[in-house]
């Protein structure tokens, strides 16, 4: 028997207050009329207006978005391949090194990843810009994708693939028609994770970006180093809202789907 | 009905559909199949029966093409199957988990294999409809696998694997996931469909009742070898070893020394100071050889007094009674401490049952009631 | 053929963009600083053939690593990083455990929501979450205003730009990493075990100490490593919330590279940081391995 006590309720309340209070304050003060960020001077949306007319920010956002979409798509393809290799390819030469290279970037400090990639790009004479950021982001986020996808593949019933072969599919057709549609949710979450990681990344982008390409996190970082600014508050609010809407609706959709599936399964049992 | 008995295995002219020729399969150090040879004929319903790990699933997976023999050959319709991938074999498999594609409807699951054959559209539709009708699933064609019951899922799996009209259908524990009542119904349905389609079925199961019900022949397997292949009746009535006798149904095994009394008669001396049991058998035993008598409980009668003229009779005391409704099983301890199980039909009402605990009773059986086994 | 293609594409990608760059770091760490660009010598010049390679290896040395031990800035910042990472891991555990425990005890229908509430911050920008504390912890920030208002203090506290702010930042940003594994361990816990302990004479507190804590040990260990490992190489938190006195190795590396433009020393710092991380990473892997074996 579980007992939900006052102690539990208190620790949950304080825990979640701690997690959410800073963001709530940030959101509230993004609507502050005053330039002084800690003194409330009435409601205003003027900082949003200023943000939207700040060309430098808009440019950085556009760069970030392009980098995010390109790198997460590449990372999803490579990461799914890597996951398939890890789970299904059996033994091959250099397997240990391969799985090491998949897991190492997950624990590698960003400063090291960033530094090493920069040194590589300089070493081979590649001009730094959007392209190098995409390469860098793809490399570290493909590892996250492959972890997400391989955990789905591990629980995947292998007899489904065998059934497809048995019914006349070549191995590739079996993957396309059976495996991929079934693991699609994991592939999609892998993509979303890679996209978020790319959108978030400051350190690796700082190392690998050239003067021609500045991403949003780099822009934000250089702005907030000087202190709190209401424009950044407004920008943060927009970013937090997008994520919150995304995550909440995703969880509602998946919960609904789970409930629907459960109901249908129960109906099937009853009708038989 | 004047019908010839279906027994191609007794016909030296018959050509087998499947031939295992000295097949050995090893996984690392483990030998799953040990130098096994076996023929299976067209239109047979062949059951591979054995405990888990006996190699029956490996045999099936080698037929499907998911595993290759380490040594030896497998021929299907005279063709060596070495190196032929699963998708190019005229063999289909019904998986234990059914392996229905969760993202496709019942209709699309059944059509899946047909689409791979590039069948013309109208022909394909007609074939799927046929399969739906055969398995009584027409109503559920538009549903997804999670929207139907376990029994219906089982039928979808069957329809899907039959749709391509394979020469050979493999069934891996096809009824394992169903409850007892549904399982019994489905067994007859399976036999019916097998007869209608004329496909050769090879079924893998660990459930002896299931194997006995559906199969034309049963192969009892143990540790990568086939112990005996025979019709269900022969397997039950004439097991060739203690292992088979013990694996199929309930049995009493009595060990003793053989003594030849006539051309096909033996006495089995089972205990000092007691009369040996008498039995008839076709097997030949050496004088004084270690031998076993295997007697099914229902072949033993229980009576309060020594029955007149019984060939084998022994007195004992009832230690346990298992009342099963239609029959009761009596556990009777005979001299020497051995407990013999004897089964009697409950033709009388409970209140007037003849025997109870601690009663002294006589057990008796005929000359052919027990099988004599040498191993 | 297909299998080879499948293996080689991600393999070659990771070799070229993960392993090779890392070897370059190692090589540069063993080189000397130069004023030209790239600011290090020797550079490997393959056009000289074998002689070039020999000359290249002859000039590699451990000078930069010796330099790291001689200049107190480096070993002080290594020590300080270890200390900050360790203390904030402990603090995260103290904050995170009761939350995870509360989640595990909560009614079933709340759990998906609670779970989402823990994961949501993980999806929001790390940079923004760190930044949000700048307005709270500054001298005229909300925390000081609140404390002044309650009368607990009469002078505003100096929190931003101190180690305290770094602790708060790390605890805040890494809290979900601590909560999730502990919650996963506690959720599996069979409630009847606690009843059995009480039935056998334990007080509730004692049952918690003797049953719940040991059975959630794997979650505690996993969570601690998930906080400790990234905290050690952290850059954003010390540079936004910490002051010039807060030494952390990630920040030192960054400054060595971008401000001092001393690539060989920055590379040497990176190599030492990685060596420092190897031990906790191996311990973490062992813990995970043990858990996986237990599950089977």
From TrEMBL, chain A:
Record-annotated membrane-spanning stretches: 12-31, 67-89, 101-124, 130-154, 174-194, 232-253
Record-annotated ABC transmembrane type-1 domain positions: 61-253
Stored Pfam families: BPD_transp_1 (PF00528)
Membrane topology field: Multi-pass membrane protein
Subcellular localization, as worded in the UniProt entry: Cell membrane
Keyword Transferase attributed: no
Chief location bin: membrane
Coiled coil: none
GO biological process, one term: transmembrane transport
Keywords: Cell membrane, Membrane, Transmembrane, Transmembrane helix, Transport
GO cellular component, one term: plasma membrane
Family per record: Belongs to the binding-protein-dependent transport system permease family. CysTW subfamily.
Designated name of the protein: ABC transporter permease
Lineage, top ranks: Bacteria, Pseudomonadati, Pseudomonadota, Alphaproteobacteria, Rhodobacterales
Automatic annotation (TrEMBL), chain B:
GO function terms (MF aspect): ABC-type polyamine transporter activity; ATP binding; ATP hydrolysis activity
The entry's keywords: ATP-binding, Cell inner membrane, Cell membrane, Membrane, Nucleotide-binding, Translocase, Transport
Broad EC category: translocase
Pfam families named among the record's database cross-references: ABC_tran, TOBE_2
Keyword Methyltransferase attached: no
Catalytic activity: ATP + H2O + polyamine-[polyamine-binding protein]Side 1 = ADP + phosphate + polyamineSide 2 + [polyamine-binding protein]Side 1
GO BP annotations listed: putrescine transport
Gene Ontology CC annotations of this record: ATP-binding cassette (ABC) transporter complex
ABC transporter domain mapped to chain residues: 18-248
E.C. numbers: 7.6.2.11
InterPro entries: AAA+_ATPase (IPR003593), ABC_SmlMolc_Importer (IPR050093), ABC_transporter-like_ATP-bd (IPR003439), ABC_transporter-like_CS (IPR017871), Mo/tungstate-bd_C_term_dom (IPR008995), NA-bd_OB-fold (IPR012340), P-loop_NTPase (IPR027417), PotA-like (IPR005893)
Record-linked Gene3D superfamilies: 2.40.50.100, Nucleic acid-binding proteins, P-loop containing nucleotide triphosphate hydrolases
Oligomer status and interactors: The complex is composed of two ATP-binding proteins (PotA), two transmembrane proteins (PotB and PotC) and a solute-binding protein (PotD).
NCBIfam families registered for this protein in UniProt: potA
Primary role: Part of the ABC transporter complex PotABCD involved in spermidine/putrescine import. Responsible for energy coupling to the transport system.
Name of the protein described by the UniProt record: Spermidine/putrescine import ATP-binding protein PotA
Organism: Thalassobius vesicularis
TrEMBL record, chain C:
One Gene Ontology term from the biological process aspect of the record: transmembrane transport
Top-rank lineage group of the source organism: Bacteria
PROSITE patterns, per database record: ABC_TM1
Key words, A-Z: Cell membrane, Membrane, Transmembrane, Transmembrane helix, Transport
Pfam families, alphabetized: BPD_transp_1
Keyword Cell membrane found: yes
Annotated protein name in UniProt: ABC transporter permease subunit
Biological source species: Thalassobius vesicularis
